[in-house]
Write a structure and sequence with these properties.
Layout: H1 6-14, H2 20-55, E1 62-65, E2 70-76, E3 80-86, E4 89-94, E5 98-102
Antiparallel strand pairs: 1-2, 1-5, 2-3, 3-4
Length: 110
């Protein structure tokens, strides 16, 4: 019943322009560049800065860990640090938990 539509459909497919592939490749490359500059590169920079911060920790540094706990470093090992959070109270935390190093003298009460 609808056989008269089939030859017209085949004729349209065969004669269409073939330039859409280049536009798709350009769009894909554009998305990859956007992903690189907005997501991957900044995250990589932050990871390098955090690794440098963790490697430069030393005894006496005043730090903040990820949970918001403040303290002064009393001992540094390969993976852990001992941190004095109050006079006579020392806790052990992983080095990777350190969020930032505070300026000297920030923790005067310890």
């Amino acid at each position: 019943m609808l056989d008269f539509f089939i030859p017209a459909a085949h004729a349209q497919d065969a004669g269409g322009p073939a330039g859409g592939g280049i536009a798709q490749i350009i769009m894909l490359v554009g998305f990859v560049l956007i992903f690189y500059f907005l997501l991957w590169r900044p995250q990589s920079k932050r990871a390098k800065e955090h690794k440098k911060l963790v490697n430069n920790l030393s005894k006496g540094d005043e730090i903040v860990i990820g949970g918001g706990l403040l303290g002064r470093i009393t001992n540094v090992t390969d993976d852990f640090i001992s941190m004095e959070i109050a006079e006579g109270t020392v806790v052990n935390v992983q080095k990777s938990a350190v969020a930032s190093v505070l300026p000297k003298g920030t923790l005067k009460s310890l």
